[in-house]
Amino acid sequence: MPAFIPESEANGGMVEVFAVASGKGGTGKTTSTMALGMALASEHDVTVIDADTGMANMLFHAGLADADTTLHDVLAGEAAVEAAVYERFGMSVVPCGTSLSGFQQAEPDRLRTVVATLAAETDVILLDSPAALGSRSAVLPIVLADRIVVVLQPTIPSLSDGLKVQEYATTYGTGVAGVLFNRVTEDEAIDRIATKTEQYFEGETLATVPESDAVRDARRAGEPLLAHAPESAPAAAYRKAAARLAVRDRPVDPVADRFRSAVIPDHS
Ligand code: ADP
Ligand code: MG
Q1: For the segment 215-268, what is each residue's pLDDT rounded down to a tens digit?
Q2: Per the domain annotation, does 9 fall within a domain?
Q3: Which atom of ligand 1 is nearest to the CA of 216?
Q4: CA distance 211 to 226
């Protein structure tokens, strides 16, 4: 192999996998996944995957509501991974279907192979993850990821959920990249909450994203926030969070091996 080929190329490229996670649904995981993905896409090859296969909604955030092939088909063994990858907004987007039957036919274990396959072709993978306190398969994205981004609303119940998510992550050897406060309103004394939170969480506060009509409007328009309202305050907050993520280079091959061998925890 010629000496000028960097080691990263020699071992098939580098990738870091993040799970965007929270304890409960509706905290803004999908909004955050798309926004962080677009912000990171200015410097990296980014793939976002809707791994929230029971409550999928990335397709609505990405203008892919009528996508023919989705992750459900791949997880059912009925389509190749490549058929569910759509180039949108400067990223590779892997949406998931929303039907109950699609969810029932999906074999969650296959997500390992999907991630391992896509890892060879991208620098950063963001797994839009299920609410982690749901079911056995719901923690799989957290198990597969190198680091999690915990999306929280600045309330005590949300913080305590977030701590449980962190506990899952650290149990499986997954790191904590940081905490993202979403839907923050001015009367919430966010600085005090963030300082308190940092005592309990391993990662830093990546950003505080305000409650904003721009976020709702983007969703309604079927566009990620950073495409729909790039100058808005929440968009700026997400760019700041992405800059703090400091994506690491991980050799693909060990990562892919780890995905293929990851054991889904059997917790009750
Ligand atoms: P999740 O994926 O965690 O279920 P979503 O990202 O789909 O959450 O967000 C849930 C709903 O909340 C969406 O309708 C979204 O537009 C809205 N939302 C999320 N973040 C904000 C925000 N910062 N301001 C206003 N609405 C928001
Ligand atoms: Mg979602």
Answers
A1: 999 999 999 999 999 999 999 999 999 999 977 776 666 666 767 666 666 543
A2: no
A3: 16
A4: 15
Give the total number of structural domains in the chain: 1
Q: What is the 6 CA–ligand 2 centroid distance (Å)?
A: 37
- Side chain identity at 81, as an amino acid letter? V
CB 47 less than 6 A from any atom of ligand 1: no
Is the CB of 28 within 6 Å of ligand 1? Answer: yes
Contact assessment for residue 181 and residue 152, using Cβ atoms and an 8 Å cutoff: yes
Q: In terms of pTM, does the model score above 0.85? A: yes
Q: Is 79 among the domain residues? A: yes
CATH of residue 123's domain is 3.40.50.300
Ligand 1 atom closest to Cα of residue 32? 6
The residue range of the domain holding 56 is 14-257
What whole-number percentage of the chain has pLDDT above 90?
A: 62
Q: Which of 104, 107, 126 is nearest to 54 (CA)?
A: 104
